[in-house]
Amino acid sequence: MKPARPLLSLAEMRPPDARDGASRTAAPHPPRTTPRRRRRPTVRRVEVPVVGLDPRLSGLTIAHLSDIHVSALSRPRLLERALDLVSAERAELALLTGDYVCLSLRSLPRFAAALRRLAVPALATLGNHDHNAGAAEVSATLLAAGIRVLRNEHATVRLRGAELHVVGVDDGATHHADPDRAFRAVPAAGLRIALTHDPRQTDRVAAHRPHLILAGHTHGGQVDVPGVTRRIMRRRGFHYLGGEYEVLGARVYVNRGLGASLPLRVRVPSEIAFLTLVSAP
Ligand SMILES: [Fe+2]
Which domains does the chain carry? Predict the structure, then answer.
C-alpha cells in the first residue's frame, strides 16, 4: 500500500523543472470502445491575477476538483483520468471542494483506491453528500490518502518557499458553514485561498477578503436548458452557477463538478479546473 503523503502544513514543494507545452497533452487516449467525451473530463484552464502575489508563487498551478460523487452509477475511469491530469498539467497543489460520495458510503473503498493516483499535496472541504452519508468516514478516507480536511479552519502551506493559506469553510447546504470561525486565525500576510462546497456562501466568504474562492455543488446546473436552468437556479439562490466571477475583489471559480448524483448532464460536461496564479499589475 502506498504511504500517505505528508500533511500540507509540513510540506515544502519544489517547483516543476519546466512548464513545456508537451506536459499539457500528456494524458493517454482512452480505448475507442467508449466515446471519449464519456471517459475524459473537460479541462478548464484559468488564469488568476493576484495583486501583490509573491513572485515565487507566480505561475503556480492548482488543480481544483469537485463533486466527484463516487457511486455504483459513476464511471470509475473518469476520476482516474482526472487524477492523472493533475500530474500531466504539472499542478503543484490539489484543492477539493466536496461531495466525494453519493447518498451512501458503499463506494468509499473505490474512491480511496483512486486517490492513490494523486501525486501532489491536497486539501479538502466536505459537501452535503459527505455530511449526509458520513462526514467522519469520508474525512478518514481523505486523511488516509494524505489529504487534510478543513472544517471551518485553515492550514498554511509552504510552496516554493512561500506561504499560502488555505481556508476551508464547511458545507453550507447542511448548515455547517462558519466563515467567521474558518478565518479567525488566518494571518494577514500571504496568499489566502478559501474553499466552500456551496457557492451560496460566496458573499459571506468574500467578506473576509481572500484572494481566491473555490466552490462546487451546482454541477453548473447539470442540465442546461437555455433561459430556464439559470432562472431556476437563481430562484434557489445560486447566483454563481459555474465558471469565473469576481466578488468584493476576490476571484471566484465555481467548478461544474466531475460526477453527479444522477449521471445525466446536458451541455454541462464533467470538468477538472487548473488555476494558474499570475501577478496582477
Ligand atoms: Fe453538493
Answer: 39-280 (3.60.21.10)
